[in-house]
Amino acid sequence: MSRHLLNQGAVKMNKMEVIIVGSGIAALKTAIEASATKHVMLITKSKLRHSNSYLAQGGVAVAMSKEDTPISHREDTIQAGRYYNNATAVEALVQTAPVAISELIASGMEFDRNSEGHLMLGMEGAHSERRILHSHGDATGKYIIEHLLRELALSKVEVMEDTAVVELIMGDDASCIGVKIVNHEGHLQTMCGEHIVLATGGCGSLFQFTSNASTVSGDGIALALKAGARIRDMEFIQFHPTLLYCNGKTQGLVSEAVRGEGAKLVTESGKAIMKDVHALADLAPRHIVAQTIYSYIERGENVYLDISMISNFRERFPTVAALCLKNGIHLEEGKIPVAPGNHFLMGGIETDGKGRTSVEGLYAVGEVACTGVHGANRLASNSLLEGLVFGSTLGRYLQQAPQRVLPQEKKTLKKTSPGLITLPELADIQKHLMHYAGIVRNAKDLGRLKAWLESFQIDCLLELACENASIHELAKVNAIIVSWLIAESALARQESRGGHFRSDYPIENDAVWLDTSIILDRHEVIKRLKGSVVYEFIKA
Ligand code: SIN
Predict the structure, then answer these.
(1) What is the pTM of this model?
(2) Per residue in 360-406, pLDDT tens?
(3) Is 498 left (phi over 0), alpha (psi -120 to 50) or beta?
(4) Of 99, 226, 342, 369, which sees the most CB atoms within 10 A?
(5) 88 contacts: CB under 8 Å, gap ≥ 6
(6) Catalytic machinery residues
(7) Using DSSP, how many helices (H) and how many strands (E) does the chain show?
(8) C-alpha–C-alpha distance, residues 28 and 163, integer Å
(9) CB under 6 Å to ligand 1: residues?
């Protein structure tokens, strides 16, 4: 393929007060709040409606019934997170949730109600109370985003679609002072900003099997690492047990709420596979269900969701029904073929409770951020809530932030051209990650993955000037860097906890690891790369 380098001669644009990258719930909420006092630019590499939030079929967890309390919500969140959560972040999430949801409803958001007009509260796996709000059944994310987009349209936020951020601009004091962006015609521009917010989502589409939007590829994490930010706990990835599985490919999510309504996981011959595995059977924690399904698929047995007992399936799950129809699955047969895949990243760019990263001027919010709120595994329906609560907190913080005088831009000599390194295809990276760093991991496979990734000279890729690459090459470079962070972190955590399962260390080991976070910054990455056998071999 010919290489179309980004158009040279960067144009400098006006300085913004707040620049937000992304278009999911966290991005929109931060933008709307911050725009009350600040000039905000929201940049998304695709379209506003192309995000994981828009696809979210699950609902929003909130302790709103008389029987429920934020304390109970907190306990369920921490239990799902395997006691690895940041207690302050969890407290902020569960205590703010009822206020945030009441504000959303007051501003016109409609959640599903029963015939008496009361909010319907659903049950999901690992929740001890009915506390999940939905909108239009399994289309909650879409309707919240549509609601926020109406608010965005009324705000003063400026929006740039089809525009990718390819580099963060750094000041000579190591703070972040802006972004380099590329539009769909390949024109490179620079935009300075006092506060740069990454809200780019996790890294789901780096895996062959995923529920995520194709745009969610970890680029925010790669940008932050290159800018010097601390990246934390990248081994904690949640694999959702039930993605629609057709012709060897996953085609989107089949919500856990389907099992909440009674669906059972069965083999071709009808054997119920979860019955003897866990007391909660089909509603056991996600990692246990995912590992069980995976073990059957590994043995060559297909797994299905038996939905024959759900009489009103099309009305209750219109999104799943439409997905099945699109992929030629006949619901009348009562069976949906499923397989597990990457769903959510619990790790990410380390932030404090306000969304500040370790780099001044740089913030992260939503799935791309690691506040520690989800610990080692996220409780169902806590992700839209996270975006709403922490987006609101960050937006309000930015409203009040004093004016920042930006330092001079740091001048760096970046020489590498990826033309000198043969990069793999994205599909190849996705297959490698799924196979070697997927649902069941071990040292041998992770070591192989790391060696393969290191053969692309990651230390050089970290130095790459975006002017020397095409947009496709930059996407691959980011994918390699983020994949390496996952492999390195998964190799370092020698126990199994939440979403991270090591067959060579199958048990949780509090004594060794409970307080140990795996934190990698650029300096640490280079240090570890220089100690690797592959590095020695390549440089020899
Ligand atoms: C689902 O509906 O199964 C996904 C919900 C979530 O991940 O919170």
Answers:
(1) 0.95
(2) 999 999 999 999 999 999 999 999 999 999 999 999 999 999 999 99
(3) left
(4) 369
(5) 353
(6) 286
(7) 18, 18
(8) 16
(9) 57-58, 255-257, 380-381, 383
